[in-house]
Specification:
401 residues; alpha/beta; Rossmann fold; 2 domains; 7-stranded parallel beta sheet; 16 helices; 14 strands
């Protein structure tokens, strides 16, 4: 099967060829015909399967045959990085069609807001937006969504994780009831199905099984205590032969702290988090893609918001709470048939999470011993506790009045 089998119009086909697309991925082969028929759709497919083109291509085909002087498609997505990536993909695929789009996201200065405002007033065909900033334009009165015929919820599970459910429902209240709604999600927990029932009509369902980590990924774990994590991280970055590294931590506060600790030992790294201005985030990603910045530290939002080839090391400073997030994280390396290394730090509280990951990927992850100079960090702490207990043994507690 090739993209010619879908019989897209010649201008869209020209864009597909220019983007180098030849054979559709499984999610594209299954989703495009359903969307072309105008049906609602729930699709479960992880990042990296080609899902963006699977909803963009049939929507672009539909727009090319309708009124191009109104906003007919709204794509909601959790992060500004993903919004920009989708907007760029629209620009490439729709280059010869005359179809317009704009990415609408928070952050940045007043100039960015005004640029978005002008794009909205010019009735771009497709708006790709994060929920919060879209609501700001809605409440200002500049944005009208009464001509929307396609609503796409991309990375729906991540949007709910980030607390956007109320915003999503508020945005939907502005939309026509007669529309096509497409929901794409990497995972399909109960709350996603609940959301789907409330916003979709008789949807078709597609489930692309969560793929296993790429064969080229060397998966490793280190069992250690919390106080050994940062020294081991510094050791791996200084002594390992890695040129491009992603570090994932569980919380934004840890990301910021790690950034300071790495810079203190002269490791060139940057923290990537929501407190940064948009220009700062874009500059960090650009430097990372151009190999000017060897290390980025972020949370799980980064695992779905970055698509860079040549990342040779992923470090899970904290074990992810969801086993599927582990696959998303380490999937940033060994892309495009390359190889890479994924290292996970496991403390005693993480054993259950590790077990879930190993059950999902159906293999035991190789454990590596700690470097000799790091074992003493835990041993000193362990020896101090018994001595402290012995010193306190037999002492009576004196209560002050």
């Amino acid at each position: 099967m090739t993209f010619h089998d879908f019989k897209f119009n010649e201008h869209l086909t020209e864009g597909i060829i220019s983007m180098g697309y030849t054979t559709p991925t499984p999610i594209q082969a299954m989703a495009i015909p359903v969307i072309l028929q105008g049906k609602d759709l729930i699709a479960c497919a992880q990042t990296g399967t080609g899902k963006t083109a699977s909803f963009l291509l049939p929507v672009l085909e539909h727009i090319s045959h309708t009124n191009k002087h109104q906003t007919s498609t709204l794509i909601l997505t959790p992060t500004r990085e993903l919004a920009q990536q989708i907007d760029q993909q629209v620009e490439g695929l729709a280059y010869f069609t005359g179809i317009s789009s704009i990415a609408v996201f928070g952050g940045g200065d007043g100039h960015v807001y005004e640029q978005q405002r002008r794009g909205i007033q010019n009735n771009v065909n497709i708006i790709v937006a994060t929920p919060g900033r879209l609501i700001a334009h809605l409440t200002s009165g500049v944005l009208k969504l009464n001509h929307i015929s396609h609503l796409i919820l991309d990375e729906a599970d991540r949007m709910l994780d980030m607390g956007f459910q109320d915003d999503i429902m508020r945005i939907i209240s502005y939309l026509p009831k007669e529309r096509q709604t497409l929901l794409f999600s990497a995972t399909m927990p109960g709350r996603i199905r609940t959301l789907a029932k409330s916003v979709l009509k008789d949807p078709e369902q597609i489930n692309i099984a969560l793929s296993q980590p790429a064969v080229g990924i060397d998966q490793q774990i280190y069992r250690l205590h919390d106080q050994q994590k940062t020294p081991l991280l510094q050791h791996l970055l200084k002594d390992g032969n890695f040129t491009s590294t992603l570090i994932f931590a569980s919380r934004k506060e840890i990301v910021k702290a790690l950034n300071k600790e790495l810079k203190a030992v002269h490791i060139k790294a940057e923290a990537f988090h929501s407190d940064l201005e948009q220009k700062e985030r874009e500059e960090i990603l650009l430097r990372f893609k151009n190999r000017q910045l060897p290390v980025i530290i972020g949370t799980d939002a980064l695992s779905r918001g970055i698509d860079v080839e040549g990342i040779d090391l992923v470090i899970n400073y904290d074990v992810p709470g969801d086993a599927e997030d582990y696959i998303h994280r380490i999937g940033r390396t060994a892309r495009a048939a390359t190889t890479g290394t994924a290292i996970t730090f496991v403390n005693h509280r993480d054993e259950r999470r590790l077990k879930s990951i190993e059950e999902l990927i159906d293999k035991k992850i190789t454990q590596h011993p700690l470097p000799g100079h790091l074992t003493s960090i835990a041993e000193v702490r362990q020896e101090a506790r018994p001595n402290q207990n012995r010193n306190n043994r037999g002492k009576k507690r004196v209560w002050k009045k």
